[in-house]
Each structure stands twice: as structure tokens, then as C-alpha cells.
Design brief:
single chain, alpha/beta, Transcription Regulator spoIIAA, 4 strands, MlaB-like_STAS, STAS domain-containing protein, STAS_dom, STAS_dom_sf
């Protein structure tokens, strides 16, 4: 665990799944960014799934990083999807619109 954040990677059936656990606040957004970059390197093709079920706080800065990671995946010809995003854990629930712009 680093800065209250844990990232676990699972490579199965062509899909890379990143399970995120803990608080995604401004202090550990760089850990998230680096971890998503690692997920892209672990398997250079196929979909990426980000599972947020065990996230208890999600800052706006983390939403921006998730949007950027989605754009990076698209540029690589990949898809990135979020699973188990609980809006009640977003520190500014109105900011979830940031993700809607990922297309």
C-alpha cells in the first residue's frame, strides 16, 4: 500500500484489470497515473478495466487522470472502461461529467 492506495493487476483472457483500493485524493493521483501507465505496458493490447469498487474517496483530480488514461488507451487502439464507480465516493459528484467527455 502506498499513500493509502493499492493497485492490483490481473491479466486474464486478453483483458488487463486494475483493481484500485483506498482513497484517490490529490496526494496520490501520481501513483494512480503511474499505475495506469504500468497497466498499459504489462500488456500492450486489449481492453483495460479499472475496478473502483474498493475506492472510498475519489477526488476530481483522479477523474481527470482517468479521463486522460482513457484517451491514451484510445490512441493505442484500446478501450478502457470503469467498473463500480460509486458516485457517493466522488468528492464533487457534479464532476462525474468529466468522465462523460471521454466518449
Amino acid at each position: 500500500m502506498m499513500d493509502g492506495l493499492t493497485l492490483r493487476y490481473e491479466l486474464r483472457a486478453g483483458t488487463t484489470t486494475v483493481t484500485v483500493e483506498g482513497s484517490l485524493d490529490a496526494r496520490n493521483c501520481e501513483t494512480l497515473r503511474d499505475g495506469l501507465g504500468l497497466a498499459r505496458m504489462l500488456r500492450p493490447s486489449g481492453p483495460i478495466v479499472i475496478d473502483l469498487d474498493r475506492v472510498d474517496e475519489l477526488a476530481v483530480a483522479a477523474l481527470v487522470i482517468l479521463r486522460e488514461a482513457s484517451a491514451d488507451a484510445r490512441r493505442d487502439g484500446r478501450t478502457m472502461s470503469l467498473r463500480n464507480l460509486h458516485q457517493e465516493n466522488v468528492t464533487d459528484p457534479g464532476s462525474v461529467r468529466i468522465l462523460a467527455r471521454t466518449g
